Amino acid sequence: MKYVFGPVNSRRLGISLGIDLVPHKTCSLNCIYCECGETTDCTALLREYVPVKDVLAELDSYLSSSPELDVLTFSGSGEPTLHSGIGTIIAYLKERYPRYPVVVLTNGTLLWKEEVREALVRADIIIPSLDAVSEPVFRKMLRPTGEITAERLVRGLMDFRPVFAGRMIIEIFILPGVNDTPDELARLKEACEKIGPDEIQLNRLDRPGAVYGLQTASWKRLVEIKEFFLPLAVEIIGKPDYSKKITGSVSEIHDAVGAVLKRRPSTIDDLSRTLGLRKVEVMKIIEEMDTGGILSKEEMERGIFYRMRADAAE
Fold first, then answer.
1. Are residues 136 and 24 in the same domain?
2. pLDDT tens digits, one per residue of 104-147
3. What is the extent of the structural domain holding 280?
4. The domain spanning residue 265 has which CATH number?
5. CA separation (Å) from 115 to 38, 74, 210?
6. Are residues 14 and 120 in the same domain?
7. Long-range contacts for 6-10 (Cβ within 8 Å, ≥24 apart)?
8. Which of 25, 77, 137, 302 is positioned for an S-S bond with 132, CB 3.0–4.6 A?
C-alpha cells in the first residue's frame, strides 16, 4: 500500500493504522529536529497531493475485515493538513468505520485557515505541535515557509478549540538551549492557558534530527518543565506498550518494517517495540534490506538508526 501503513504500536495511541496524505517531506515547516529529515517541499499550499479515491480504496481494503486497532492516525512523513481532501477522508471514516477513533498529528500551522479548521472538526483527537511562541525561536527551530508565523499558529489553535468537540493534546518538543529558556517556557505556558487543550505532552529528541548535533533534553529537565506548567495537565511521553504484537505474513511484516523506515529512522529495538516483533525477526529483515543497499545508517548514543534511502523510498 502507498498511503496506508502499519499498524504500529504508538507510544501514545496504542495500535495505530497510519494514513500518509502527502509525498515524503512535504511540509509547511522544516524543523531542525524532524526525524523524517529535511523538508524538500516547504509549502502552505492546500491541494490534493494524492488522489482521495486511492486513499479510500486502500482504507476499504484494510478495514473491511474489521481488524483490531485502537486508532486511525493521519501522520507519516509530511504535514497531513496540506491535503485539501483530508476533511472528506475523515468524514468517510466516521461514517463507514465509526468504531475507530480518528487522530490527526499535525504541526498546527495551517489551522489559521478556516477550511482547515472545518476539515478537522470531525476528528476524535487532534495532536498539534506548539514548540515556540516568540518569532525568533519559532523561526530558528521550525524554519517555516514564508506565510507561517508563531502568531498565526497560536491564533489558529485558539480559534479551533471552541469548535472542536474532540480531545486536543498539544505536543511541545523540548530542545535544550533553543526553546527551554525561562522566557520561552513562560510564553508557551501562557499560550497553552489561552488555548485550553485537554492535555500537554512533552517530547524530546529520540532519533536523528534534520540537523546534526542537536542535544537531547534530560528526563530531569522534562520533569522540571512539567512542574513549571502546573496546574495544566502535562505528561512526559514514554515508550510504547511492549505487549501488543502485530501479526501478518512474512511479506506483510517485511513491508511493515519498510513502511516505518521510509517515514522515520529506527533502531532494531524501536522496530521490535513498534511492530511487536522479536528482535531476531527484525534483524533478519534489516540484514536483507542492508544487503540490498536500500538502507542508510547513523550511529547515535541509543544505537544504530536505520533509514530507507531516499532513492529507495520513492
1. yes
2. 999 999 999 999 999 999 999 999 999 999 999 999 999 999 89
3. 250-313
4. 1.10.10.10
5. 27, 17, 30
6. yes
7. 6/246, 6/256, 6/259, 6/260, 7/67, 7/69, 7/246, 8/246, 8/256, 8/260, 8/274, 8/275, 9/240, 9/241, 9/244, 9/246, 9/273, 9/274, 9/275, 9/276, 10/70, 10/71, 10/73, 10/240
8. 137
